[in-house]
Amino acid sequence: MITFQYYLTEAASEDKLKHLEHAEDHIINAGFDGFAHAYHNLQDVHDQLSGKKNKTKITTKYDGSPAIVFGHHPETGQFFVASKSAFNKDPKINYTAEDIEKNHGHAPGLVQKLKQALEHLPKIAPKTGVYQGDIMHSGLNTKDNPNGDVTKEGGKYHFQANPTGVKYSTKVGSEEGKKAASSKFGIAVHTAYHGDTIEGLKAEYAPDLSGFSHHPDVHNIDTQDDVQHAKMTPEQHELYNKHIKHATEEFKNTPKKAYKALEGHQDLLKTYINRTVREGTTPTVAGYRSHANEYHAKLIAKVKTPKAIAAKTETLHNDLSHIDKHTENFQHLLTMHHHLQQAKDQLTTALSAKPKFETSMRGKPTKPEGYVTVRENRPTKFVDRGEFSRMHLGARTE
To answer: With b meaning 16 or more CB within 10 Å and e meaning fewer, what string describes 166-197?
Structure first.
């Protein structure tokens, strides 16, 4: 007998995946094959939380800033640091403090962070290779480290790289607390790159970082999460199984041609779903139609000439007509999306039960920002979208 999991293979690559995506959004990006990728990610994490082993890696998603690229240039062999502009058509590669001033002098905050990276990362980086990570802190503020941003209060050390993001806290006597206190630079490395040129570098997510050395000046935060301490409660197991069952039943009842209804609607549909997350509502076809109508109406209002108005009005009518024609197909997809998200939320909550750091936003305890699963070198976000939407929305309105 061919089992459902055997049947649901990932035969095609999700070539539309250009950046980190939520697990449930894979279905919007790549339809049938996207569902397969989402399903297997969820099942792999569920299996690990149930004590079973597989090759999927689970890493913690840290809210650091800025993201930097560093290592030894594949062509020159020189150590460099850079912002993500390292991958621009005209890359800004910094070998010296003077390079940093020249390339980023307009952004003094970035200049300071890059100079710290240039000073401290060679102390731990392997002699070859290029890596990417997020800067987490600059150590304790002392006479020897005047730019330090780690604070000590209530028997804990605290740091927050993103002013409107997550604050991380750890007890003074903890292993991570000792590292934060003794260091002058904190980073969370999550990606390695391989290739003979900067332009030809290929990413490896959740790489083996055993080649990094240790130095008291650098707090190198391990992003690869050990899930042995994380267990699902019976209620979480029950809810996960319920939603994954509903998702797969909907998948089985959806004809493959239904996914074609998504063509040309992926971006608009995802902005609608993000809107429902912010509003705390459940996505519906009627809601998406209303969102599309509102979106196109705003575009029409921005143009003045009769020709431009007519063109954008025609696009509006075409999109609404398409939604009306494929109402049943959109409903299938939204139902699958909803149950995948609900199943994922049970896993994310279980993973967040005993985090390495205490996390908060604006003084209120919250879950870690989330996790990233890496299956066959393809990363997927596991984030409680509802909680973080509410927290970040509060940050914008307060």
So the answer is: bbbbbeeeeebbbbbbebbbbbbbbbbbeeee
Between strands 218-220 and 185-194, the pairing is: parallel
The pair of structure tokens assigned to 32 is 């049938």
> Are 271 and 279 contacting, i.e. CB atoms less than 8 angstroms apart?
no
Cβ-based burial of 305 (10 A; exposed 0-12, middle 13-18, buried ≥19): exposed
Q: What is the DSSP string of 49-62?
A: HTT---S-EEEE--
pTM of this structure = 0.90
Pairing label, strands 218-220, 202-205? unpaired
What's the rounded Cα separation, in Å, for the pair 66 and 75?
A: 25
Per DSSP, which regions of 160-285 are E strands? Answer: 167-171, 185-194, 202-205, 218-220
Name the phi and psi angles at 54, rounded to 5: -155, 180
Specify the pairing of strand 156-159 against strand 67-72: unpaired
Please list the pLDDT of the chain residue by residue as tens digits (398 residues).
234 454 455 444 443 234 689 999 999 999 999 999 999 999 999 999 999 999 999 999 999 999 999 999 999 999 999 998 898 888 899 999 999 999 999 999 999 999 999 999 999 999 999 999 999 999 998 888 898 999 999 999 999 999 989 999 999 999 999 999 999 999 999 999 999 999 999 999 999 999 999 999 999 999 987 777 788 999 999 999 999 999 999 999 999 999 999 999 999 999 999 999 989 899 999 999 999 999 999 999 999 999 999 999 999 999 999 999 999 999 999 999 999 999 999 999 999 988 999 999 989 999 999 999 999 999 999 999 988 777 765 544 33
